[in-house]
């Protein structure tokens, strides 16, 4: 294999060259094409094709490449097409609201959305976020997240996503996308794929087989594609030797061909490593476009892997024109698909991500032109009500010996104890990237955060309530002054003690936790504080604000601890949402979206924190599909003894009885139809690249005075062009066979055919009905779940099936009874998937049935791509 390195490549990149790479298979990057069977898509595609056909080579390249880190006012911004009045795309973090702006909401984290088990609430959260991004003039919201999925409980960014259960994450990501995009904002499913930890995220090489890929990590992305997601962000890590953003297996083969993804792939910030490798392997947009720092001697010749370098590669035929045209058509189709109205009427960004000042330079690095950079547009509307509802309904009651709900009329005194209950004395945004635990924690840290417009701490909410209802209120903030904590707690009839454990992204750290958590215990002396309070007050309630499970068995067993609640990262209405549940104003419906093991070891997965050679650490994911509850339930191990609270656990204030379970086969008799078909030849849009049109691809005369420092432009530099050094092949990819540039008719993959993959994967096979009765004395909400074990020789794949409750947790009053149906499905071929929403048949379900004897195990025609992970 020939590795071509270029003088311009960063030394870092050459050093991280993979030791053994996946050979480049030469699968050409799939192009999107008309689809008259889908009128909405077809209309968007036609508008996009008409638009792209008018563009020149450099205008096309402009839309594929960011103008550089902090080059514009958005976190990511592409070049524009001034000739047609088309402003470049504005991209903004993150998955729980608009980052780096004021007057926008701080929503609950993804894991909290999942904990509601409510499609309605998850959709509403997406809609509200979409409205806020739109209101700020943002084109692309950089979320939601399905990677990290949550392989390890310490995973730094797990909370940004939903749940380690791929089925729940799939439902949640799809509803979030539908919500965001319904408001005219392109959603971005990220981080694709296997970005499961923060340690070594920029170099780790995850080696993974076909089964684990399809049934676990790819699964929710299939749901995202099926929901019509407009963009996908490729991740920092490598997969089978090759960086995700230059990886034809994950981008060309799995995402764009098997899953039939018709939107665009953008790089995570700085995750692109080459010009040709990324272009031929399916990347469509380079972010932030430059090398995320001032140009240096080691930067590539254009200060970018794309921009002028991509123009040059197209001129030289190294990247075929159809590939560039496909990139831009994908970008513009996603735009027209979600954008209501004409492209010229869309609001421009009305903020700067880099300053809160009202006026400042439009372009930071040129310090000009001086203008209004922040209009401080308030986009919060009435979203606080939804945020409060989400906070309350995502709170999981893990333990309750009967103390809850508290009574406003009979409770006489209350003690609120711990730093995590109180306001940060310097304000909720005083720590950059939320990287501290001073005061109550309501989101993790890193780029998945926002500024809080305000943050209602539990102490504030509970003090207000106490004053209103004549409850005597005691409180103390220190987690370390256990004497004061005990004297405060012993004053009150009920003591609520708060504790936290947080995590985030690796560019910031707290107490040596560089993103991933170093352990699974509580932070800031939390366990000692809980023990101290429980020692003196028999009515102790524990409230946890954590980024995932913590080791809490001691509190579960403690006789004086009457209740334990997990409130996750609830966002700006934290205290109000919690109080609503504590006092029974909201029926608790939160269910744990992950398993609470008794210790870290019991999870059976290892976070890689030490590597012999940090430039090329490698991971094999030996547990295969068995993460979280699948691990605890898998063959012969059992949850008993190793789990404090299971996945899906959560108590309410009443009791339900189940009866009359009926399982009915409703489909799957017709067999599975393999997708056959051929693509059209790759379309070339507009004028064919003319290598003689030098004026067309070099900087216009007189532009020099307008040039913005550090900005990435699409024009070719004649010196670089003639030196032949302008384009770089990806280290670790090797040569590109002719097939990689073949724009001729291609066979479609048997597993493909539709957005989300073959329709057969979504057929509902069984319907399960059960009667659910409220047998208690209060109204309550039930989230019905079904765990099934698909038995095979010597093994059992635990499968968690959820029912209609996924769409609408049902409120039941005693003594009325209500029945609900749940629909589940089972194999073969690959795990069937839910029918799309809205659907007459209600819910679905699934988990990971074993692929049967290769009849259609994710339909891979290339032998090198098939393979099964070992059974545990
Ligand atoms: C590319 O975008 C930049 C930034 O918006 C703009 O200055 C430049 O004129 C554009 N180039 C072309 C060829 O339109
Ligand atoms: C990736 O690596 C795994 C484990 O080594 C192997 O089973 C699988 O076939 C590889 N996939 C590709 C596409 O190379
Ligand atoms: C904001 O304005 C202040 C006062 O004019 C100035 O000192 C500061 O540098 C500005 N900040 C930014 C990021 O432009
Ligand atoms: C925030 O908490 C840290 C310890 O976690 C402490 O060192 C620091 O002084 C606190 N900062 C403020 C502003 O209170
Ligand atoms: C609170 O106590 C005061 C005085 O003891 C009494 O007037 C008031 O009605 C009480 N309020 C409530 C809500 O019980
Ligand atoms: C008690 O809580 C209130 C409301 O948050 C706060 O203002 C006060 O400082 C707290 N007191 C102590 C001793 O922590
Ligand atoms: C776990 O990590 C937290 C945060 O760094 C720390 O406060 C705590 O002491 C650690 N626990 C143990 C048992 O080391
Ligand atoms: C073109 O590239 C050469 C060599 O890297 C550089 O010296 C020159 O400044 C560039 N010209 C322009 C207009 O950017
Ligand atoms: C191009 O590469 C050659 C060696 O491959 C090197 O000598 C030359 O300096 C490079 N030119 C530029 C402009 O980078
Ligand atoms: C499932 O829930 C939906 C929404 O509440 C309802 O319309 C439908 O009738 C339910 N299906 C069954 C079979 O109960």
From TrEMBL:
PANTHER family (alphabetical): BETA-GLUCOSIDASE (PTHR42715), BETA-GLUCOSIDASE A-RELATED (PTHR42715:SF29)
PROSITE patterns per UniProt: GLYCOSYL_HYDROL_F3
Biased composition (Pro residues): 828-839
This protein's name: beta-glucosidase
Superkingdom classification of source: Eukaryota
Residue ranges, compositional bias (Low complexity): 806-827
Domain Glycoside hydrolase family 3 N-terminal: 101-333
Group of enzyme by EC: hydrolase
Functional pathway: Glycan metabolism; cellulose degradation
Species the sequence originates in: Podospora anserina (strain S / ATCC MYA-4624 / DSM 980 / FGSC 10383)
């Amino acid at each position: 294999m020939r590795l071509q390195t270029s003088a311009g490549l960063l030394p870092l990149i050459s050093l991280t060259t993979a030791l053994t790479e996946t050979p480049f298979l030469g699968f050409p990057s799939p192009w999107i094409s008309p689809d008259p069977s889908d009128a909405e898509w077809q209309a968007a595609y036609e508008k996009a094709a008409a638009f792209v056909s008018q563009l020149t080579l450099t205008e096309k390249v402009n839309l594929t490449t960011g103008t550089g880190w902090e080059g514009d006012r958005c976190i990511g911004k592409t070049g524009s097409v001034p000739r047609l009045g088309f402003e470049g795309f504005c991209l903004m973090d993150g998955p729980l609201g608009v980052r780096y702006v004021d007057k926008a909401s701080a929503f609950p984290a993804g894991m909290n959305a999942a904990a509601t088990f409510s499609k309605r609430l998850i959709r509403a959260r997406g809609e509200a976020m979409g409205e806020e991004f739109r209101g700020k003039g943002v084109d692309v919201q950089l979320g939601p997240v399905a990677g990290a999925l949550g392989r390890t409980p310490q995973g730094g960014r797990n909370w940004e996503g939903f749940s380690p259960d791929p089925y729940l994450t799939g439902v949640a990501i799809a509803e979030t996308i539908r919500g965001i995009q319904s408001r005219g904002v392109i959603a971005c499913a990220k981080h694709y794929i296997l970005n499961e930890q923060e340690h070594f995220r920029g170099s780790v090489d995850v080696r993974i087989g076909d089964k684990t890929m399809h049934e676990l990590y790819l699964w929710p992305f299939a749901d995202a594609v099926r929901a019509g997601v407009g963009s996908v962000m490729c991740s920092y890590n490598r997969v089978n030797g090759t960086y995700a953003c230059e990886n034809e297996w994950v981008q060309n083969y799995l995402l764009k061909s098997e899953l039939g993804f018709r939107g665009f792939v953008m790089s995570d910030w700085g995750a692109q490593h080459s010009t040709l490798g990324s272009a031929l392997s399916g990347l469509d947009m380079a972010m932030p476009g430059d090398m995320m720092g001032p140009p240096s001697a080691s930067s590539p010749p254009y200060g970018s892997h794309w921009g002028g370098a991509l123009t040059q590669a197209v001129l030289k035929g190294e990247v075929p024109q159809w590939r560039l045209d496909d990139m831009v058509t994908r970008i513009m189709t996603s735009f027209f698909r979600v954008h209501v109205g004409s492209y010229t009427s869309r609001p421009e960004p009305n903020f700067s991500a880099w300053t809160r000042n009202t006026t400042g330079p439009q372009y930071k690095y040129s310090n000009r032109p001086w203008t209004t950079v922040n209009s401080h547009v308030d986009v919060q509307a009435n979203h606080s009500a939804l945020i409060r509802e989400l906070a309350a309904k995502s709170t999981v009651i893990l333990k309750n010996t009967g103390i809850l709900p508290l009574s406003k009329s009979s409770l006489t005194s209350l003690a609120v104890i711990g730093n995590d209950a109180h306001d940060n004395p310097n304000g909720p945004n005083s720590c950059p990237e939320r990287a501290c635990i001073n005061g109550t924690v309501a989101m993790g840290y890193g780029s998945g955060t926002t500024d809080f417009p305000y943050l209602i701490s539990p102490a504030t909410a509970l003090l207000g309530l106490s004053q209103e209802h004549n409850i005597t209120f005691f409180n103390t903030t220190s987690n370390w002054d256990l004497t004061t904590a005990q004297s405060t707690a012993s004053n009150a009839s009920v003591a609520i003690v708060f504790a936290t454990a947080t995590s985030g992204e690796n560019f910031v750290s707290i107490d040596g936790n560089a993103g991933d958590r170093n352990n699974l215990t509580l932070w800031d002396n939390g366990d000692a504080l809980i023990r101290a309070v429980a020692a003196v007050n028999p009515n102790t309630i524990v409230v946890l604000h954590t980024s995932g499970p913590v080791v809490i068995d001691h509190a579960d067993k403690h006789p004086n601890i009457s209740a334990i609640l997990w409130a996750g990262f609830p966002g700006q209405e934290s205290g109000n949402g919690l109080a609503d549940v504590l006092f029974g104003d909201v029926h608790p419906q939160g269910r744990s979206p992950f398993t609470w093991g008794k210790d870290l070891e019991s999870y059976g997965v290892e976070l890689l924190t030490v590597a012999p050679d940090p430039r090329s650490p490698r991971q094999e994911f030996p547990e295969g599909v068995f993460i979280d509850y699948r691990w605890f339930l898998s063959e012969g191990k059992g949850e008993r003894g190793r789990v404090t609270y299971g996945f899906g656990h959560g108590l309410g204030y009443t009791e339900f009885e189940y009866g009359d379970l009926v399982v009915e086969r409703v489909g799957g008799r017709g067999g599975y139809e393999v997708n056959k078909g051929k693509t059209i030849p790759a379309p070339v849009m507009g004028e064919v690249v003319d290598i003689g049109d030098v004026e067309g691809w070099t900087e216009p005369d007189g532009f020099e005075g307008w040039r913005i420092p550090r900005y990435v432009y699409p024009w070719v530099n004649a010196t670089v062009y003639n030196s032949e050094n302008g384009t770089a092949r990806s280290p670790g990819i090797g040569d590109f066979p002719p097939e990689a540039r073949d724009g001729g008719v291609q066979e479609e993959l048997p597993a493909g055919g539709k957005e989300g993959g073959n329709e057969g994967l979504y057929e509902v096979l069984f319907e399960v009905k059960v009667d659910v009765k409220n047998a208690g004395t209060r109204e309550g909400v039930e989230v019905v779940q079904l765990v099934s074990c698909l038995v095979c020789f010597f093994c059992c794949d635990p499968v968690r099936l959820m029912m209609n409750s996924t769409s609408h947790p049902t409120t039941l009053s005693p003594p009325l009874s209500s029945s609900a149906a749940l629909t589940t499905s089972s194999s073969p071929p690959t795990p069937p998937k839910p029918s799309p929403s809205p659907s007459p048949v209600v819910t679905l379900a699934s988990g990971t049935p074993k692929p049967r004897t290769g009849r259609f195990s994710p339909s891979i025609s290339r032998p090198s791509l098939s393979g099964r992970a070992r059974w545990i």
